[in-house]
Amino acid sequence: MSFTRAQLATFHGGTLPDLVPDNLRLLIVGINPGLLTIATQIHFGRPGNRFYPALVAAGIIPRMPQVTDGVYADAPALLTEAGIGVTSIVAAASARADELTNEQLREGGALLVEKVRRLQPAVVAIVGITAYRIAFALPKAATGRQPDGIAGSQLWVVPNPSGLNAHDTVASLAAAYSEPARAAGLPLEAAGS
Q1: How many angstroms separate the CA atoms of 121 and 133, rounded?
Q2: Which residues contact 2 (CB under 8 A, 6 or more apart)?
Q3: Which one, 27, 43, 82, 116, has the greatest CB density within 10 A?
Q4: With 0-12 CB in 10 A as exposed, 13-18 as middle and 19+ as buried, what is 17?
Q5: What residues contact residue 137 under an 8 Å CB cut-off, 6+ apart?
Q6: Contact (Cβ atoms closer than 8 angstroms) between residue 65 and residue 81
């Protein structure tokens, strides 16, 4: 499935449903969906995104999702089988997260608190420290476990898997992602097993 730039641009502002399994243990929170994510309706669905390679390297999911028609087609099944849900701070899609306003991030943060209160995952992991700092008015926050949690759930902030976050590698992302997964009680498999 391929799209031209003009076709992808038509998905600007679009949304997709949250991925919420019945056995939700870990809720992963992206900044906002990209245009291809909306076009395919698959969270982090673009092959080449480091999200799934990092989850595999951490042992959080057992294998890479299969690529069908240019997207990680079975990714939702792999996540839900593991007890992992996915949502975003801001629901509306953009080509890049830096297109979002501080107001959108703050509004999204307030909505996220309500969503977490309703879903009650054991652990929430927000990917992206800058977006977290803005959304929750915590300019000095650092990555890792957050002392106050969120709506009764343990809260972690982990690095964003975007290629624009070039100083992180799949290995460093895997190390960061394994911490909230362990805290959520997910069984981690040895990488490559």
Answers
A1: 21
A2: 70
A3: 27
A4: exposed
A5: 106
A6: no
Beta bridge partners of 27: 85, 124
Distances in Å between the Cα of 172 and the Cα atoms of 44, 112, 133 are 18, 26, 21
What's the one-letter identity of residue 111? L
Looking at residue 49, the DSSP 8-state letter turns out to be B
Q: How far is CA 152 from the centre of its chain?
A: 20
The pLDDT tens digits for 167-184 are 789 999 999 999 999 999
143-169: per-residue pLDDT in tens? 999 999 999 999 999 999 876 666 789
Q: For residue 131, give Cα distances in angstroms to 48, 73, 110, 142, 193.
A: 22, 27, 13, 12, 34
DSSP H/E element including 7: helix 5-9
Rounded alpha-carbon distances, angstroms, from residue 94 to 14, 15, 18, 69, 161: 8, 10, 17, 22, 16
